[in-house]
Every structure is written in C-alpha cells, then in structure tokens.
Design goal:
Helix content is 42%, strand content 12%. The chain has 315 residues and is an alpha/beta fold. It has a single domain (9-302), classed as NAD(P)-binding Rossmann-like Domain (Rossmann fold), CATH 3.40.50. An eight-stranded mixed β-sheet has the order 3-2-1-4-5-6-7-8, sandwiched between helices. Helix 4 packs parallel to helix 6. The two termini are 33 Å apart.
C-alpha cells in the first residue's frame, strides 16, 4: 500500500468498534490524539492523573464531537498501584484494546522519586508505561492488529543508558539528561516489544512516534519554570500546534500501512514540524542487548511480567 506524504487526521480510517487508550489525554498532544480517535468512532479512554483536568478534556471532546464514545479513567503512572487499578478497571469494562497510546510524560525539574521509590522521570515515562502495557497485554493479544504506540522525542538522540545507575541512585542526575534517557528507553522498549510480539507469533504491533517541535503544556511549563529568555518564547511561537504534534502518534496508531517496529515523526526540516512520515532513530535505540537488559530490569523493578511473549532478539 502506497504511503501518503501529506498525511493528516482526515486520513484516519473509520474506527467504529475499536477501543483506544491515550495516557496523558488531559491536554496537549494526548488530548488532540484522543479527540481525533473519538471523532473517527473509537471508544476512547482518557487515562489522566487529574480528575479535574481529565473531566475538562472529556467535556471539550464531547463539545467538539457530540456523539463521541469517550470516558475518563484515572491513571497515575508514578504509582504502580494506580497502574494496576486502572488496568483492572479497564479490563472489567472492555474485552479488547486496539490502540494503546503511551503518550504521557514529564520533563525536567529537580530530582524526585515516585511513590515506589523510582527516579521520577524514569519511573513515570518508562516504568509506568512498561507496567501499564504489561497489565493490559491480554487485551492487546486478544485484539487482531492491536497497536502499542510509545511517544518518544528528538531528544532521545542525546540519551544515554547506565544500567548501573539507571535510577540515579549513585547521583549524576540532571533534569534534561534524565528526560533524554527516558526517551531513549521508550524506543528500546518499543523495539524489544515488537521483537517479542514477533517471537510469540502475536498479531499485535509496537510502534513509536515523536511530535517534533510542538507547542504543548509540557514545553510551556518548562519555559515558565526556568524563566527562559525572549528567544525561547519566540521558539514557542514558532512551534507547530498540538494538533499537528499529535499526527505522528495518530498515524502510527491508525494508518493501515504502518507496521510494527516503525517510528514516525514530522517530515519537515530536522523533523521539527510537518506532516508525519517514517523517520529513523539513533543507533543506541536499536541495541538489542541494551533492550533485553532494560526489559529484564523493568520486569524486576515493576513486578510486571509479559506472560506469553518469548524473549526477542534471539535472547
């Protein structure tokens, strides 16, 4: 099937009868992705940490798409107990899961820990989504053609993994370096999950996306927090909107020509903006040895296994 170069939300096929979960759907890219999935008929679950912000997002979607089949379920990725509660509630409501968009994330800030004692960014951006995907694995495997889409970042190219100091127990923490690490972890997880889907003969697919240089609450908060100069404020003005930033995620999640193991991002200059296309990730993101080790550590740290999936990459 030929791939469109100027893919937009209008190219999303009819999703009636399908079920989608979008984490971090209370604002920004997550909200826009959830809106478009609901617009195309998917039963869409907004997985949000804040009940108040999540309800506002749900109300906004319903105002824009009056016949939307959408609901809010609370999820705090910084709490393994919350992840388990969400998965239990979801599984009680739904027998299938066509799209799991692992979109939520935090960026930068001072060192902190999650409820379970993990460094805050690794714990939320990677371990929380690893646990969530594992908890929902039975629904994914029961759904023909199910897709997991992990949202990474251009910053993954600056990420480094130190397995002897994954959670910065030995110091060396920096807000940006930790964020870049998590975005690299997102891709290592994506590719390893795809290898394990293939190894188990599963019909599910694992893909990744990045939004480019997009105006979201995440970036705006960081800009305000650090009182950055006028040139950064100008940069925010030049960003593409969250609706365009959501397109790589939406393409990975819905384009019939998309395949497991693919990575989507904007096709413009330096992948900062533009229509979503296939893009390349760093060499480090494709290390099968690192991916297997990360997987094993993630299972140990979260206590969440992926029963039914064989080890990928020949491991």
């Amino acid at each position: 099937m030929a791939r469109r170069e100027n893919w937009t939300a209008d190219d999303i096929p009819d999703l009636t009868g399908k079920v989608a979960v979008v984490t971090g759907a209370s604002s920004g890219i997550g909200l826009e992705a959830a809106r478009e999935l609901a617009r195309k008929g998917a039963e869409t679950v907004l997985a949000c940490r804040s009940a108040e912000r999540g309800q506002r997002a749900l109300d906004a979607i319903r105002a824009d798409v009056p016949d939307a089949k959408a609901e809010l379920l609370l999820l705090d990725l910084a709490s393994l107990a919350s992840v388990e509660r969400f998965a239990t509630e979801f599984r009680e409501r739904y027998s299938r899961l066509d799209v799991l968009a692992n979109n939520a994330g935090i960026m930068g800030g001072p060192f902190g820990k999650t409820e379970d004692g993990f460094e805050r960014q690794v714990g939320t951006n990677h371990l929380g989504h690893f646990a969530l995907t594992g908890r929902l694995l039975d629904r994914l495997l029961a759904t023909p053609g199910a897709r997991v889409v992990n949202v990474s970042s251009l910053g993954h190219r600056r990420g480094e993994v130190d397995f002897d100091n994954l959670l910065y127990e030995r110091g060396g923490y920096g807000g940006w370096t930790a964020y870049f690490r998590t975005k690299l972890l997102n891709l290592l997880f994506t590719y390893e999950l795809q290898r394990r889907f293939e190894g188990a003969g599963a019909g599910a697919h694992s893909l990744a996306a990045h939004p480019g240089f997009s105006g979201t609450n995440l970036g705006e908060v960081m800009g305000n927090r650090w009182r950055m100069g006028w040139f950064v404020k100008l940069g925010f003005m030049l960003m593409q909107g969250a609706d365009r930033g959501a397109l790589p995620t939406l393409r990975a999640a819905t384009d019939p020509s998309a395949r497991g193991g693919e990575y989507y991002g904007p096709g413009g200059f330096m992948e900062e903006r533009g229509h979503p296309v296939l893009v390349a990730s760093s060499e480090a993101a494709h290390s099968e040895a690192d991916a297997r080790r990360l997987w094993e550590m993630s299972e140990e740290l979260t206590g969440v296994g992926y029963a039914g999936l064989e080890a990928g990459g020949g491991g």
